[in-house]
């Protein structure tokens, strides 16, 4: 069981040929609990890859401390870093497999480096390939595999030496949505069955929603928001988080779409947020029915986030003007409701 702790971590790259230094990561603190799946999300250039390289010690932080398990990797000499890296597995967007080697040889490679005897290696490789569902493809060459299968080989190889932490660098970005979900489900199993802590970076909110427990949102080198996936999705605070959430959740219609809805629906339009632990849907419908107001859902929906439900629906309310106004006032006391027209 391994936790990862970043405290005030910064990375400044020296400017090239007289240009200004680049602040890639600035004062980032993240606590990844042992056995947690923690996602770091951000747009291109936010500093995600740099952060991951600092965690596996490929690059040295300019400031702050990084603990992997009980090892403070900041300031460790290369010889000691190698031992810590042995406890960290890594998978990549482009898989980084050896094309001239078979599937089995790819997975065996880190075991050879670790000095494991041949008979044990064979047994371990067979066990790993079974786990990732590639038991029948041991002798195939990696260029005969689909993208999803290649990433399964990457995962088996990363797990070979029993790491406590798995770092995933945009691990599903090169895959189609269905294959991406299969690989994410496999990563969830890795986390659940072996208790491996996973730190993954991504620019896709769907990835966060699918498997992460907690999330850090990065923007311009800084951690601008952190929290449980449900909290960040259902109530994003930072503008960057709000933009990401809008890509993955039903939202209030944007202005141009709203104009279209208004043209097609003559009733009053209201947007209601449905949050696990918030107002019950029957309360909304009975409040409207009691005043003779009829209701249609015209936009949005309800979805699963972090194992809980969250939704935002736009409703068209039709009835007597005073009855609709009264119903809206009554609902505002119970629910998160925004009047759109
Ligand atoms: N070796 C380097 N030398 C100089 N600047 C760098 C170096 N690596 C990254 N940077 C800069 O640091 C900033 C953060 O880059 P980084 O690759 O970590 O972002 P990212 O969020 O991973 O983006 P992407 O998703 O596009 O990879 C960028 O401005 C980038 O140009």
UniProtKB/TrEMBL annotation:
<dbReference type="GO" id="GO:0006865">
    <property type="term" value="P:amino acid transport"/>
</dbReference>
<keyword id="KW-0472">Membrane</keyword>
<dbReference type="InterPro" id="IPR027417">
    <property type="entry name" value="P-loop_NTPase"/>
</dbReference>
<protein>
    <submittedName>
        <fullName>Methionine ABC transporter ATP-binding protein</fullName>
    </submittedName>
</protein>
<dbReference type="InterPro" id="IPR017871">
    <property type="entry name" value="ABC_transporter-like_CS"/>
</dbReference>
<dbReference type="InterPro" id="IPR050086">
    <property type="entry name" value="MetN_ABC_transporter-like"/>
</dbReference>
<dbReference type="InterPro" id="IPR003439">
    <property type="entry name" value="ABC_transporter-like_ATP-bd"/>
</dbReference>
<dbReference type="GO" id="GO:0005524">
    <property type="term" value="F:ATP binding"/>
</dbReference>
<comment type="function">
    <text>Part of the ABC transporter FtsEX involved in cellular division. Has ATPase activity.</text>
</comment>
<keyword id="KW-0547">Nucleotide-binding</keyword>
<feature type="domain" description="ABC transporter">
    <location>
        <begin position="4"/>
        <end position="245"/>
    </location>
</feature>
<keyword id="KW-0813">Transport</keyword>
<dbReference type="InterPro" id="IPR003593">
    <property type="entry name" value="AAA+_ATPase"/>
</dbReference>
<dbReference type="GO" id="GO:0016887">
    <property type="term" value="F:ATP hydrolysis activity"/>
</dbReference>
<dbReference type="Pfam" id="PF09383">
    <property type="entry name" value="NIL"/>
</dbReference>
<dbReference type="GO" id="GO:0005886">
    <property type="term" value="C:plasma membrane"/>
</dbReference>
<dbReference type="InterPro" id="IPR041701">
    <property type="entry name" value="MetN_ABC"/>
</dbReference>
<keyword id="KW-0029">Amino-acid transport</keyword>
<dbReference type="InterPro" id="IPR045865">
    <property type="entry name" value="ACT-like_dom_sf"/>
</dbReference>
<keyword id="KW-1003">Cell membrane</keyword>
<comment type="similarity">
    <text>Belongs to the ABC transporter superfamily.</text>
</comment>
<dbReference type="InterPro" id="IPR018449">
    <property type="entry name" value="NIL_domain"/>
</dbReference>
<keyword id="KW-0067">ATP-binding</keyword>
<keyword id="KW-1278">Translocase</keyword>
<comment type="subunit">
    <text>Homodimer. Forms a membrane-associated complex with FtsX.</text>
</comment>
<dbReference type="Pfam" id="PF00005">
    <property type="entry name" value="ABC_tran"/>
</dbReference>
């Amino acid at each position: 069981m391994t936790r990862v702790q970043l405290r005030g971590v910064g990375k400044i790259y020296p400017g090239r040929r007289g240009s200004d230094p680049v602040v890639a990561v600035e004062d980032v603190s993240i606590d990844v609990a042992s056995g947690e799946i923690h996602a770091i999300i951000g747009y291109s250039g936010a500093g995600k890859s740099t952060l991951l390289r600092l965690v596996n010690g490929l690059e040295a932080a300019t400031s702050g401390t990084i603990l992997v398990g009980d090892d403070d990797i900041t300031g460790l000499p290369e010889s000691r870093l190698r031992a810590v890296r042995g406890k960290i597995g890594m998978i990549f967007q482009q898989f980084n497999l050896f094309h001239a080697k078979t599937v089995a040889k790819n997975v065996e490679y880190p075991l050879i480096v670790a000095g494991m005897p041949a008979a044990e290696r064979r047994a371990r490789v067979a066990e790993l390939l079974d786990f990732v569902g590639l038991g029948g493809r041991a002798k195939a060459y990696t260029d005969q595999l689909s993208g999803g299968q290649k990433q399964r080989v990457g995962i088996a190889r990363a797990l070979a030496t029993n790491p406590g932490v798995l770092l995933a660098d945009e691990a599903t970005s090169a895959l189609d949505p269905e294959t991406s979900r299969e690989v994410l489900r496999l990563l969830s199993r890795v986390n659940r069955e072996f208790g491996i802590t996973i730190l993954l970076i991504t620019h896709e909110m769907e990835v966060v929603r699918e498997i992460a427990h907690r999330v850090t949102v990065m923007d311009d080198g800084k951690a601008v928001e952190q929290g449980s996936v449900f909290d960040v999705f259902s109530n994003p605070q930072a503008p960057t988080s709000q933009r990401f959430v809008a890509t993955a959740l039903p939202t209030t219609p944007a202005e141009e779409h709203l104009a279209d809805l208004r043209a097609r629906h003559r009733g009053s339009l209201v947007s209601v947020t449905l949050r696990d632990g918030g107002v019950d849907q029957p309360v909304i419908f009975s409040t409207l029915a009691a005043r003779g107001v009829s209701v249609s859902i015209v936009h949005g929906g309800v979805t699963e986030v972090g194992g809980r439900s969250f939704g935002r629906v736009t409703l068209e309310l039709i009835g007597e003007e005073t009855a609709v106004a009264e119903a809206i006032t009554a609902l505002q006391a119970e629910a998160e409701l925004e009047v759109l027209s």
